[in-house]
Every structure is written in structure tokens, then in C-alpha cells.
Design a protein that fits this description.
Elements (H helix, E strand, L loop, with lengths): L3 E2 L10 H10 E2 L25 E2 L6 H17 L2 E7 L4 E6 L7 E2 L2 E2 H15 L5 E6 L3 E8 L2 H7 L12 H12 L4 E6 L13 E6 L5 E12 L2 E11 L4 E9 L2 E10 L4 E9 L5 E5 L9 E4 L9 E4 L3 H14 L11 E4 L10 E6 L5 E3 L4 E2 L16 E3 L9 E6 L2 E8 L5 E6 L12 H15 L3 E2 L3 E3 L4 E5 L4 E4 L5 E4 L4 E5 L5 E7 L2 E8 L3 H4 L6 E4 L9 E6 L1 H22 L4
Parallel strand pairs: 5-8, 5-10, 10-11, 19-20, 20-21, 21-27, 29-35
Antiparallel strand pairs: 1-4, 2-3, 4-37, 6-7, 8-9, 11-36, 12-13, 13-16, 14-15, 14-17, 17-18, 22-24, 23-25, 25-26, 26-27, 28-30, 30-33, 31-32, 31-34, 34-35
Amino acid sequence: MIPFLTYPLALLALATVPALAAIYFLRNRFRRRQVSNLLLWHFQVQSKAGGAKVHRLQLPLLFFLELLTLLLLVLAATGPHIKLPASTRPLIVVLDDSFSMRAEQGNISAQKRAHDFLEKLFRQSAPPATRLILAGKDARSLGATAKNWREVETVLAQWQCQSPASALDAAITLATELGKQQANILVLTDHQPAEEKITSPRLVWQAFGLPLDNFAIVNASRTAFGEQDRCLLEVANYSGGTRTTKLLVQTSSNAVQSSLITLGQGESQRLVFNIPSTAPMLQATLATDSLAEDNEVKLLPPIRKRVRVQVALADEALANLVNRTLEATGLRAAISEQPELIIHETDSLATSNSWSLRWISAGATNAFTGPFIVDNSHPLAAGIALEGVIWAAANATNSPGDVPVILAGNTPLLAAREDIFGRRLLTLNLNPGLSTLTSTPDWPILFWNILSWRIAEMPGLKESNARLGAEVILKTTDEAVTVTQPDGAVKSFKKTGGELALETPLAGIYSVAVGTVTNQFSVNALAADESNISRAMSQQWGRWGDETERRIEDTSAVWLLGLLALALLTLHLYLLKTLKGGS
């Protein structure tokens, strides 16, 4: 094959070839002198290696070795590439990383069978260049190209099969792009493809699953319900017929509920019950079956954040109205010291940690009946309709920096802004004595939104229980964050402000340390599609093209030219030593 040059400017080095030839064409000229004896002369032979006189051409073998070496080095400097046929195609293996691959029969899982199949494939023949792609919730490539089974096995350590889903389609697309339509693709999973007929000559779909009976907890929650916590558990039967399992629900060592559940094929049952809010972690466990990952859930107490509110209104009737409304939301803290929200009528600044709700009622005699302009995307306006409401307000214009939330024409009725310290300053333009707003559902909704927004901006976790693979939001301060996963792995984040989305790759209890404060949240494997292994199977779909077909790939020839030049230089040194007698 004719090589192509990646750096043709290096051919300018061919100018050294005439310089080498000139050394052999030009000879030194010496005068002839007669002496009586050569005994005291150090050089008995005149050197004719150089000079300015042209003699008859004498080209020894050394000249040709030097000339050929120069040519090889110049050609190597141009970076030549040649196209050579390759007898094997590269291989890209797509690994199903969902937890259904952990289903066992006889202590052997689909993951183990797929691992053994891949090892046998490498042991039987010369292994091709191989890349691995993990198909979990998202598709991602695992490391660089592996050239032998030892390297492949090292990368396989990242194949844990703990994801709540398997993005096989996205992984195959990624494999096609990485392989540039030339690589063979092998999919290792536990179920059949969406279309049983594989049309691509480069794709083989190999399933290692078994249709096993399985009970699973597919839904679980624990929410605040007054002074108690309301818990929900949903158990599903993914077996070939009617089956019975035992469910044990306990907090610490105290059994809350132990019962037998009988369900038909494909049926599910929901259990709803209350437990004291002071109860610690609740643990629900099913009897052991083929898939252990969905047999247990752990539910921590829900996060109950309350807002310390100080009502500093001079009007006693108005203050009583606001206090009753705040109590009705259930989000107000029992104490008001070091308030996190101050409701007032003056322009006085709030404390360093508090938000402010400034109430404008003086001169609010203009009654508006709508239509009202409501920014429904704002947290303060969620669920507010204002249908048939009379809203009495003072004539006002929007203050600089204020973001209007509710407007009547060009009059702002509710506005919000953020100061340089990150505090939210709210303005409510309302005369309740001339309005009907306080007698509608929109009134408690408004205060619920205010307190909920304040809670959402407090540092800490937003939830204590999450599904496997979901992101858990942490409201951070300027302090460092350390997350400890269920397997003991620790992730640290530098000082950061705002929100931090924490990944949940494993089921179990996570610890989150923000400064000196440590909180926990629980992650549970709740995925009905992965728990349903009754449709799993072991079969192969598709077939790679003829293994004897050859492909053409570009290969650098620099190393070959360098080796040839080195061999010629070695021969050159050997000849010099031989011809000069070892001098």
C-alpha cells in the first residue's frame, strides 16, 4: 500500500544527502615529502576523508549505509501511515447495570452468567480490542480500550448492577458512535430486545435471565400527618401464580406490624398506617426470594421544618388575623425568638437571618375587582386563583428591584425582591377591612406559600427519603459538605452556596455533614419494572457478520522505519570497528 505522509515538510531534510555525498567526492591534497624513516611518525597513513580536491569517485560500503540511514530517518520524520488489513473487528460490550441482573437461582445471578460468558469468549480466541459501556440510568463508557482479559476484568469491577433502570438503547447508540459503524456490539442483559429481530449485522443481544418468582416493595413513603407520620407500602406479586409472603414492619426492635400477604399473579396491595412522629427509622422487610434488592425499605422520619415568625403589627385586629392564619398553616414554629420572618408595617430593616413582609394598609382605599395579573410561576402564587375577590389597596408604583407577583392593572398588590444579603423582602398592599380576600381560600394559601418558600430556602436537606437513582437536593451554606454513602465511600465538596444535587447510586442510609451539622437520608430500590423478572429469559438474538471478512485500518510506519535505521547504524559501527582494527 502506498503510504501517506502526515508531515511532508520534513522532506526538506533530504538536503543532507548532497552534503554526505560531497564528503566522499572532496579529498584533501597533501605535498609529497621524502623522509629517512617512518619510525617516529605517529600517522603512517594519510587521511583522505575530506578535502577540497576532486578525485576519482570512490564509494565504500559505509557511504551506502549512511545514505540509506539518512533516507530512513527523513522518511520517518514525515510521519508516514500505511493502510493494512486487520483480521478482527474491535468489540464494544454493553452491560445491563440494573438491579434485576442480581436475581439469583442457586446462588448464581444473571450478572454472574454474563460475566462467565464474556470470560469464555476471551479465553477461546485471540481477544479483540474491547471497550465496555455501562447501561444504568444513563449510558457511560468505562475507561479506555482493553486489550486482554485481565484489563477487561479490571474494568468490570465497576459493573455493580444497582441501578433502577437500564438505558440499553442509549448505550447501543453510544457504542455505534464510538465504533464508527465498524465495531461488533455485544449486549449482555437478562431480557429480550424490544424487537426480537436484530437487523444490524454488527449487533448481538445475549440474555442471561431466568423467569423467577418475586415479591417486591414497589412503593414506600412516610409523610408528616399532624402529630403522626403516615406511612404507605405497596407490595406486588411478580410470580407465575398466587403466592403468599410475610411482611414485617418495625421501628428499631419494636415490631409494628407482621402479617401474611396473599396476592394473585401480577396483583399488588397497598398498606396505609400511622406511626408516632417520634418513632425512629421504620424498616419494612419481605420474606427472602430470588431478588433481595426490592425486599426491604428503610424510611426515616420526614423533615419537619418550622418558621419562627414575629408579628410586629400595630393594629391588634390585624395582628390577631395574621396569627390565626399562621397557626392554621401548621408551618409556624412555637417560638418567635431569632425570627426567620418578620411581618411589620414600618420600613425598619429585619435581622440578619430574617425575611421581611411589609404590610401596606394605610391609604389602601381603592377596591379592585380584577382581572388580576398573577405570576403563577412564582412560589408565592402557587394555587392562588382570586376569583370574585375584592382587593382594596393603595395607589402605588413598583419600587426599584421589586418583582411584582400580583398586579391590578399597574398597581402592585404583592411584590418580592432580594437584598444584597440574600434576604427576601416581600411587600403586601392590602386593606383587609375593605377586602374579601381574607374570607376566601386564597388567604391561607398565600401564607402557606410564604412559609413554604421560607422553609425551602433554609439550609439542609429537602427530603429524608428518596428513590434509588433520584437526586436529593441539599440547600448549602458557605461551609464544606461531606457525603458518606452506604458502602462507606466518602465524597467531599468544597465550600459552596446555593443548592447541591446529591447522586444516589446505592440503596441505604446516607450521611450528609454540613459544617458541624450532620443529617441523614434514606434511599430505597423502588422500581416495578426491574422487580418484574417473570419475563426474563436466556437467549441470543442477532449474529455478527462473517468473522473472516477483513477491514482496512491506518497504521503508523514510523516505528518500523526507526528500527531499520537503528539496525543500519549498528551495522555501520560494526564495520568501522572491523575495518580500523578495533581502534
